[in-house]
Amino acid sequence: MAESGRRAPAQPQSQPPLVRGLIAVLAVSLCLVSVAWSLGVHRTLGLALYTEQFLAVMLALALALVYLHVPGRGGERSRVPWYDALAAAAGFGAAMYVAVRYERLVEQAAYEPTSSVVYASVLLLLVLEGLRRTAGPALAAIVLAFLVYGLFGHLVPGRLQGRSLAYERMAADLTLDPNALLGTPILIGATIVVAFVLFGHLLNRSGGGRFFTDLSTALMGRYRGGSAKISIVASALFGSISGSAVSNVVSTGVVTIPLMRRGGYPAPVAGAIEAVASTGGQLMPPIMGASAFLMAEFLEIGYPEVVLAALVPAILYFAALFIQADLRAARAGVMRVAEDVIPPIRATLAKGWFFVLPFVVLVSALFWLHLQPEEAALYAVLTLLVLAPFTTAGEGGGRWARVRATVRVSYDSLYRTGLVVLDILMITAAAGLIMGVLNFTGFSFALTLVLVELGAQSVPLLLLVAALICIVLGMGMPTIGVYVLLAVLVAPSLVELGVAPKAAHLFVLYFGMMSMITPPVAIAAFAAATLAGAPAMRTGLEAVRFGWPAYVVPFLFVASPSLLLLGTAWQVTLAVVTALAGVWLISVGAVGYLVRGLGSLQRLGFMLAGLLLMVPAGAFRGAVATDLTGLMLGVVLSLRELTLRQAASASDHRH
After folding, report:
1. How far apart are CA 303 and CA 288, in angstroms?
2. 282, 285, 277, 242: which is closest to 256 by C-alpha?
3. Local structure of residue 79 (DSSP, 8 states)
4. What contacts 37, CB < 8 A, 6 or more positions away?
5. What is the pLDDT of residue 635?
6. What backbone torsions phi and psi does residue 593 show, to the nearest 5 degrees?
7. Which residues of 343-359 are buried (b: 16+ CB within 10 A; e: fewer)?
8. Are 252 and 231 in contact (CB under 8 A)?
9. Please, are residues 286 and 362 in contact by the beta-carbon 8 Å criterion?
10. Per residue in 356-409, pLDDT tens?
11. Would you say 55 and 63 are in contact if contact means Cβ atoms under 8 Å apart?
């Protein structure tokens, strides 16, 4: 699900039976086609197909679903307007035409591009409108701007002047070239994302979501500020499956936010903790958001390498959130969760320990068997299907009752997955269009030269500009769309200036995601504020405070990639240990509490010590001295607070 202001889809039950049935057939077919391609069924059957033909079939199903399922304007509708039915048929027909005649169409377009105008124009127009319906107008406007640049970029003066492209040639290339509409972005969406979303839906429908929430409660509920820690663990686990901050907030927040409110956290703080934890779920290995799979393709490395690189930054992110939630609870006197709410850990594990097995299969397939991500996810799905008859979803009857329950769960998961991935498929199709325009016009190369010149004067300035662009573009746009834009426009210039490729791409991914919690358009924070009944802007500002590592750590791993596990064992160990210590010190300063409340000067001192300590030793000449200074300052401040607290306690005892 895209984290954007998408229009609410028409409720299936409000549609006529024929339309409901057609939507169900299309949604399930979309999933089954994806699964069949990922498992290589076409090769087993001896069919020699281009990847672009598979993608055209997926696009045909997606376009038909979008126009039948998602209304052009907000609100529910009781029927499909004739123009939406016509658009669904036209989109399905045009894309299937490309799928069936792909090889012949490519040959024709090479010497007679005008032959492609009709079906190419239909596809471009319907993808744009489908994008507006599913991902909102912001991303659609940006894609339209790039298409206009493709036609008129040769009229732009200066360095950013593009190559001249006739409409016929541009339309043909955008719809047929493997580096455009039917390119890498939509391939990721049509295979990997579908497989992982199917896994997530099947896990939840089988009772896995409830198990992990109960497990989080059993593990964390007995500790100070346990309600917030439950939210953090549950959201991190669920977010790593859903890959969507807003979806995560809505799914887990309905349970965790009221729990935090009952535990004594103010409404804005409860909403902020949920929003930050949900956003961070996209950074949490082993299952990160869709952007991570795209990153692996851009960098031409295996997905496990991306996971390993993202591990330490994710640990720092959630460590800071945990520490701040704990200190906030201590400062406000928030106690642990009520005993009657906490399930016994043994009983919880006894009821659902088998839900861990699909994750064991997934991680083993990714890291030891080195399978493709979509294959690993489908093996995890198969594991769930084997377990399904023994889960709570299938209780309450004999063997055949359990089998029927498993079939119902499987069908429902396929159906819901087919509808949920519409957003991603439209977004990745649009991302392919942007990449196509950038490649065909030479705009990305020209912009890279301009940014490299800026970076030659000041690399920190370029990083600040890139971070600002990421956050601004992310306002109202889904993370994957922002990442594709910045991966093509900004990341190459960072690499040209000597930044490690993994660091450059993770940098733009982090700041693209931070738009989810950064006002004025903090979509995840505002969704959490609604559930908490808190002021939206105040919740957003609290989210920025709790999520501060995401604004700092990217600059650090750009300066020294040791935080991405790049370097010697000693360099990596030193960087991780000092960064964790720095996170603790800054969190103390941000909350304003250690063993007692802190004044403004003490808070500034703790934050300064933490910042000095977080700087990796290899970042620049003299960075070791910076770490030592931060360490000494942090030790002195901490000992002072502990001493004063002991003195105050002794004085109280004497009196």
Report:
1. 10
2. 277
3. S
4. 54, 190, 191
5. 93
6. -155, 135
7. beeeebbebbebbeebb
8. yes
9. yes
10. 898 889 888 888 888 888 898 899 999 988 887 776 444 555 667 777 888 888
11. no
Burial 43-68 (b: 16+ CB within 10 A, else e): eeeeeeeebbbbbbbbbbbbbbbbbb
Write the pLDDT tens digit of every residue in 462-484. Answer: 888 888 877 777 666 677 777 88
Q: How do residues 289-329 score in pLDDT, each as one tens digit?
A: 777 888 888 898 888 899 899 899 999 999 999 999 889 88
User: In which residue are the tokens 């010497």 written?
Assistant: 111
* pLDDT of 565 over the 80 cut: yes
5 pLDDT band (50/70/90 cuts)? very low
Q: Do the beta carbons of residue 393 and residue 178 sit within 8 Å? A: no
Angstrom distance (rounded) from CA 582 to CA 61: 50
Q: Which of 468, 539, 585 is nearest to 278 (CA)?
A: 539
Helix (H) or strand (E) run with residue 457 in it? helix 443-457
Q: Which amino acid is at 513?
A: M
Alpha-carbon gap, residue 579 to 553, rounded angstroms? 9
State phi, psi for 85 to the nearest 5 degrees: -65, -40
pLDDT above 60 for 13: no
Query: What whole-number percentage of the chain has pLDDT above 70?
Result: 91
User: 560 — alpha (psi -120 to 50), left (phi > 0) or beta?
Assistant: beta
Cβ-based neighbour number of residue 192 at 10 Å: 26
Per the structure block, which two tokens stand in for 84?
A: 């939406």
Dist CA 28 CA 237 (whole Å)? 26
- Cβ of 651: how many Cβ atoms within 10 Å? 9
Q: Which residues pair with 593 in a beta bridge?
A: 597
Query: What is the rounded CA–CA span in Å between residue 178 and residue 184?
Result: 8
Dihedral angle over CA of 163, 168, 173, 175, nearest 10: 140
C-alpha–C-alpha distance, residues 190 and 36, integer Å: 11
Helices (H), 112-183: 117-135, 137-152, 167-176
Q: Is pLDDT larger for residue 64 or for residue 394?
A: 64
The separation between CA 532 and the C-alpha centre of its own chain, rounded to angstroms, equals 23
pLDDT confidence of residue 362: 86
